[in-house]
Amino acid sequence: MNPHADQDESPIEAKLSAxxxxxxxxxxxxxxxxxxxxxxxxxxxxxxxxxxxxxxxTGALGIPLLWMNKAFxxxxxxxxxxxxxxxxxxxxxxxxQICRWSYHQIVG
Length: 108
What we know:
Order of helices and strands: HHHH
Strand content: under 5%
Structural class: mainly alpha
Oligomer: single chain
Keywords: Membrane, Transmembrane, Transmembrane helix
Distance between the termini: 61 Å
Shape: flat
Largest sheet: none
């Protein structure tokens, strides 16, 4: 322990440099989800970005993103939702087959 340290203060105590006088004095920053920047809004409405997200990242979990996008017509939304659901089912089946094959390789 440091012999020069004050005995009344703990090294892990934190003190406020200035306390606000009222609750209205503390500014509350807006939530990033509440007001996305222009770039994010434009990206969310991009057809390519939505399709890339569906096929490369989220699979069927990204279908709500597809339905929120105004760039797709209802027919396209149904089509892409069906394709992404089938694609996701195929990936799950492939993963199951790989696990099954691996198990049989290990067991003998």
